[in-house]
Design goal:
Elements lengths: L17 E6 L8 H9 L4 E6 L14 H6 L4 E4 L13 H9 L3 E4 L9 H10 L3 E3 L18 E7 L6 H14 L4 E4 L3 H7 L13 H8 L8 E4 L11 H11 L3 E6 L17 H12 L7 E7 L6 H15 L3 E2 L5 H12 L1
Parallel strand pairs: 1-2, 1-3, 3-4, 4-5, 6-8, 6-9, 7-8, 9-10, 10-11
Helix pairs in contact: 1-6, 3-4, 7-8
């Protein structure tokens, strides 16, 4: 999987393994980079570093920068994706300590490490690297809308940070196990760190979003599948732009709607209720058919991490019957997830 794309997606040479920095994060959704790396690339993670006040943890051993370096860590990864992608001043002493301990710094924030003078000075002083992952390739073209060969699957969602990346990774691995020629195409900082390549779609200028998505999933063999990590939500008041550009440019043949039962308001925008999964299907087909008239919904991926196994199974079975398509939790797997995979391939 994850074949690099000519002139667009060279594989990243990131120093590994990592120690995961969680700052003083109290909202699990904002720690999705750290949690994603722990869940999907555990062999690359030696521990975590949290500041006082943090309530989110990956469950990995708490380490100081010096302890992490002694365990073989080569870089500290900022595992937080907060609102605005900022690196606040009160984090910086810990980041400088990591540089002094011999670790490089890796971040996928909108605020670039290299633009923070004290970090740039410390990196030069200690001979370490500052690696900003959220940097799109140069000279991205405007999207053309040209239909490309090969098959594409895009994960979309009712909100941010509820499982689009996890679902795409799980589906790509499931297709690979079935002998399908498949690539996972990363569109966000965590996916890029896991896959070693991709395009950070939320760092692309809006006029070039569709063109970036076209680069991300180029022409391929007719039986090849690109499973594309979704971003944002088409109805999110803050992040709909990246979702629409990705939808038009990726031209998905199939999409899977990701949803977290029990979530009622959109992340970071109190007062905006979640759109129903049915409405997301309607909107995705209406807008996505502009560049692929054959677009269809393959089913639904529910994040049931807050539910017990029996309650989750009952809910997903009931919703599957109501919606007329498979509903599964990709992390729980099982027959429901097998049905979702089969529906996507049908």
């Amino acid at each position: 999987m994850n074949a690099p794309m000519e002139h667009a997606l060279g594989a990243l040479a990131l120093p590994q393994p990592y120690v995961l920095f969680l700052g003083d994060t109290t909202i699990a959704g904002f720690a999705k980079t750290a949690l994603g790396l722990k869940d999907w690339a555990p062999e690359k993670c030696v521990g975590e570093l949290r500041l006082p006040g943090a309530t989110v943890t990956t469950g990995l051993e708490a380490l100081t920068p010096s302890e992490a370096a002694a365990r073989g860590a080569r870089a500290l990864v900022i595992g937080v994706a907060n609102q605005g992608g900022v690196i606040p001043p009160h984090w910086r002493a810990s980041l400088i300590e990591a540089l002094e301990a011999g670790l490089d710094l890796i971040a996928g924030m909108h605020m670039r490490l290299s633009d923070i003078p004290e970090l740039a000075d410390a990196a030069e002083r200690f001979g370490r690297r500052l690696i900003d992952v959220r940097v799109p390739p140069a000279r991205i073209p405007v999207g053309t809308g040209r239909k490309r060969s090969g098959k594409r699957l895009l994960t979309v969602g009712t909100d941010c940070a509820l499982g689009k990346k996890y679902t795409a990774l799980a589906l790509a691995r499931a297709l690979e196990r079935r002998g399908v020629d498949v690539d996972f195409r990363a569109t966000g900082q965590t996916g890029i760190m896991i896959a070693g390549g991709g395009i950070p779609m939320d760092a692309v200028v809006s006029d070039f979003e569709a063109g970036a998505a076209e680069l991300l999933s180029p022409d391929a063999a007719e039986d090849h599948w690109d499973v594309i990590e979704g971003q944002g939500a088409i109805t999110h008041p803050s992040y709909a732009a990246v979702s629409l550009g990705l939808l038009h440019g990726s031209q998905p043949d199939v999409f899977v709607v990701c949803h977290e039962p029990g979530r009622t308001e959109m992340l970071g925008t109190a007062g905006y209720p979640l759109t129903s999964v049915e409405r997301i299907v309607e909107l995705t087909i209406a807008l996505g058919s502009r560049t692929n008239p054959a677009i269809r919904c393959g089913g639904f991926a529910f994040n049931t991490s807050a539910l017990g196994a029996a309650e989750a199974a009952e809910l997903m079975a009931r919703e599957s019957e109501r919606l007329g398509l498979p509903v599964a939790d990709p992390i729980r797997g099982g027959s429901a997830f097998d049905a979702l995979v089969a529906s996507c391939l049908a």
